[in-house]
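To illustrate the input format used throughout this study, we show a single complete record. The first block contains the structure-token representation of the backbone; no residue identities are included at this stage. The design step must infer an amino acid for every position from geometry alone.
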């Protein structure tokens, strides 16, 4: 798929768009309504960037996710619901314009060659930690239905998600989709998104998963 050299940028607090992941969005701001309309009439692509923490003005993080609009449903009041599928991690470069919505030049970020043996070992560790999460009863944060479900239903759903993630064989997909499905902290997810080197990305993921499991064990022992 040919990527454009410049794209609209939607800046959102705590939002991370990973390659291959699906992100549901509700479009209601006038500027983003116009952005959506323009995108649907061109290449159906725009970027989602996390707002830099502690900034009052709109300040997108330099590494963002580029997404393709898969489904868009408009409503009578002018708002829309859509599903955006991540297709690449990109670096945001110079801003082409700010109004009516931000457009920036982008540079696709691709993983450099890595140590396959080290990656295989890290993949095995990630799967081991995911199984440990399920045993400890930890939910998958992006699925709000789990918070309202009964414990048995939540556990069953978690196992289904785990089975799906375990079927992934591409290390890139494992690193990104596991991070999307499991990590609740926006800073953690942004760290994974910004880490282009695959081995380093998996190491970050292992570290975040181990820290979460350690906290859960401590809480249970209190």
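Output of the design step:
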């Amino acid at each position: 798929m040919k990527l454009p050299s410049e794209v609209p940028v939607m800046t959102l607090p705590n939002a991370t768009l990973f390659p291959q992941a699906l992100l549901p969005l509700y479009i209601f701001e006038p500027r983003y309504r116009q952005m959506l309309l323009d995108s649907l009439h061109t290449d159906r692509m725009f970027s989602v960037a996390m707002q830099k923490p502690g900034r009052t003005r709109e300040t997108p993080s330099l590494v963002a996710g580029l997404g393709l609009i898969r489904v868009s449903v408009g409503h009578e009041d002018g708002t829309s619901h859509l599903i955006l599928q991540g297709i690449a991690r990109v670096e945001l470069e110079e801003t082409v314009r700010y109004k009516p919505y931000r457009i920036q030049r982008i540079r696709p970020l691709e993983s450099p060659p890595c140590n396959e043996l080290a990656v295989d070992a890290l993949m095995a560790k990630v799967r081991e930690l995911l199984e440990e999460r399920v045993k400890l009863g930890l939910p998958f944060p992006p699925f709000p239905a789990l918070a309202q479900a009964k414990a048995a239903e939540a556990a069953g759903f978690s196992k289904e998600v785990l089975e799906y993630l375990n079927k992934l064989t591409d290390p890139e997909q494992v690193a990104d989709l596991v991070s999307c499905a499991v990590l609740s902290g926006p800073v953690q997810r942004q760290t994974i998104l910004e880490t282009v080197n695959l081995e380093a990305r998996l190491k970050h993921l292992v570290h975040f998963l181990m820290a979460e499991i350690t906290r859960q064990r401590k809480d249970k022992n209190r």
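Structural context for interpreting the output: The radius of gyration is 18 Å. The first strand starts at residue 6 and ends at 12.
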